[in-house]
Amino acid sequence: MVRTTSVRLLLATVSTLALNVAAHAQEPASAPTTDTQTTESQNAPAAETAVVLDTVTVTANKRDTKVIDAPASISVIDEDELERRQASDLSDILRGLPGVEIYGGPRSTVQEPIIRGLTGDRVVVRVDGVRANMSVGHKGRFFFDPEVMKSVEVYRGAASTMQGTGALGGVIALTTKDANDLLEAGENLGARVKVGYASVDHGLTTNGMAYGRPTENTDFLVSLTRESTGNFEAGDGNKQPYTDDDYINGLVKGGIDINDASRLTLALQRYSDDHQLPAAPDSGAAVNSTSNYLVNRESEETSMVLGYSYHDSSNDLIDANVNAYGMRTDLDEKRVSDGRHDERTLDTIGLDGSNTSRFDLSGRELAVTVGGEIYQDSQEGRRDGVAVSNLFPDADMTIYGVYVDNAFAVTDALDVTAGVRFDSYDLSASGQRSREDSAVSPRFSASYRVTEWMQPYISYAEAFRAPAMTEMYASGYHFPGNNFVANPDLEAEKAKTWEFGTNFKSDNLFSTGDALRAKVAYFQNDIEDYIEQQGATFGSSETRSVNVPEAEIKGFEAEISYDTGLMFAGLVASRIRGENTRTGANLSNIPADKVALSGGYRFADQSVEVGGRANIVDRLTHISSGYEVPGYATFDLFVRWDADETLPGLSLNAGIDNLLDRNYQTADNGLYEPGRNFKISASMKF
User: CB neighbours of 77 closer than 8 A, spacing ≥ 6?
Assistant: First the structure.
């Protein structure tokens, strides 16, 4: 019934949206929203104007573009929303987005994002521009501190042309804060202290930041976070074992404005956690002495990025960004029973850059973006100091790519984009046959603003993913009775994605100063040589990665926001299906149908905001193996108080997640999710 209700609710909402907007189509067009993300009316007080709807994206085309105007499916979780959610892990941040789910269960350091049914290396992850490429079975790839996040941008759909190999499912781009995000006008030095508590696991989070502008053209930020949690309780009141965590994260970030157009930045970040886990922490399997033994695990990730940007509004030919970066990820595990020591290390170094030139063609702008990237991944695995190919085979992969992307405003209403990228990769491993290949990934989109409030679009994009080093070269012992078998003949995956969507944008729709934004899209992703692991079940003697000749993933997504300045509301819905088109078998990781609702009210005079969220997920029946997963519905409440007038610099957040203490699982992750969770945090700026 949840699925039926979800679809009806979605269709009814979209229909209502279209009818209401159409009713206002003959009214004079309102002033467009600005990049400051505020829609204002001369006759409305500031407290009653709509806010935080026109966020800006750079993932779509390397240029600043309003999300609502982009011919693509993009969601941006900004700093205000991160504060509302009091996020402690990836699931807290991405829950409720259309077409996005989390694989790996509730243990924060083993969570993996799923975008449109694709996960692992098929989702490109960048932190301040640094590629986070760690990928190893059962171990996770996200090691980050939510306290330093400024925004999280999620691009759904094939994005290889602009983002390079791997972006079959999409891109997640995380941006950390800098001094300019925290300093008030006229301030040159500041500090912030924040403390948070969560009842479900007795988690305590503390963060301290210092930031400033020592001179007119320099700025810096230093941040240190410590989070310590215990085992959490599920909705049935039972403790979930080995879900505790203890991490420390440090961030140092600085910038120099060389002149009015040029800026140099440097960011250093180090994450470290230490906890006890099963060897396969992404499952709910009981701890045993053979396949899921207990380990003491330390995870460390260190990254550095040096960036240069040139932006001069008077120079149409140069609008450039260049990043040089490096990242090292270490997973260190010692088996509790006998001290056996497993080490996995991935080093990534890379350089990427782009430049946009703008040309006036008879009064029409043509923006030409040219860019490129080269990076190398080097991984090694050791067991008691000895290289072992089944653990994390010693291997190297070098990838380089170049691209050109053209955006042309054909008329005031019609925009066309066309681009193409060339990528080449070289894979090699000790004692194994090396592999080279290349790919060309074109893309095209066209959008037409039929009216001031409606912009349908069509897009086509191809994407390419080189086989992961572990997929191609893992060999040897897997679990009792089963061995990994290397497959150096694996072909790269290639995706061809069509998307048909419409952007809706209307101001002063129901009342003066309100704003409505909506993005609705249908997509179909046809994948050739889809890589799937086969044989990783008891009763099978071999586990190997193989190419599935043809796979298809298609679905529908909607994201709607409405804001009056005092009241705000949102609706999200998605329905996705995926299959092996040769056999008709379901693909793994295809999420259940879902609807997410949110809303709230701002008491402007008291600087208080209250609201709630609902996440309604249908029963998961389209599974590749295992058992169906029951549907569920969870409800959250939140309240925020900017207490600056009472005590300058003070801000308070409180909330209740899973209000009804629902006992549920997401997908087939095995472990149950946290039960009712009272959360509170307080921050003080000096």
Answer: 93, 94, 97, 151, 152, 153, 154
